[in-house]
Design brief:
325 residues; alpha+beta; PH-domain like; Arc Repressor Mutant, subunit A; seven-stranded antiparallel beta sheet
Amino acid sequence: MEDGVLKEGFLVKRGHIVHNWKARWFILRQNTLLYYKLEGGRKVTPPKGRILLDGCTITCPCLEYENRPLLIKLKTRTSTEYFLEACSREERDAWAFEITGAIHAGQPGKVQQLHILKNSFKLPPHISLHRIVDKMHDSSSGIRPSPNMEQGSTYKKTFIGSSLVDWLISNSFSANRLEAVTLASMLMEENFLRPAESYKKKISSKEEISLSTVELSGTVVKQGYLAKQGHKRKNWKVRRFVLRKDPAFLHYYDPSKEENRPVGGFSLRGSLVSALEDNGVPTGVKGNVQGNLFKVITKDDTHYYIQASSKAERAEWIEAIKKLT
């Protein structure tokens, strides 16, 4: 990391004028949070924007978007609001911790509160997500579904986020709303729950639906934002990668889209993964993209070119994938 950089990495940011979501490279310094556009795997300078942290307030977790449970909201002294989405709970909490530290630098009392925040909500060892889901479906004590109209389709077994939060508290799964929201977002991340509109699968045959359900049923081992080269147009885009085991699959999601379903993915059984040369542009890679690249070749010989944001991150991904091939 450069001098004075407290944390850097990808976050997905809501646009100011048009409320679309875009992955940006963020760099946190003592008094500012800078963000950059990425082109061909490298950040475009000067920065696209900067958030002045002096007098900023931070909200984490932020519940303003039901389909985006991993948000941080920053409100500047001039009341400008920024919504930033991380790729996992751990990453969201790490960013919130560092940003809050930068806002309150030099205020020891605040920094102590931070340490409490850093060890925030962990799922109690005696509660399993499976057990919560079983109880949710229980006819006597479960959550009451309310039919929901969504883009012209009626869904019978749906409920609104706030009623789930109330139910988790009344069943003593959570002590307060903050814990309940965190728990609800865990249920969504692990695919026990899905936003209503993502049920409208554009899939006709039942076999494919059950296949995709099996693919997504594995335990999440690792997730993060990585850049990936497209297959057809060979352009580089930031995707949220999720690695699952039993069965072993690597899926990737478009973080600019609302629905939480993969835009692609492949089985890791029989795949090969390797780091690519760091000097110059390796064969198969389009554009002037170099550094921290790795390649996964699937069993059916499809080549995926992926770029991590550091050597350490690349090594972690390769090791995690190797264990599952």
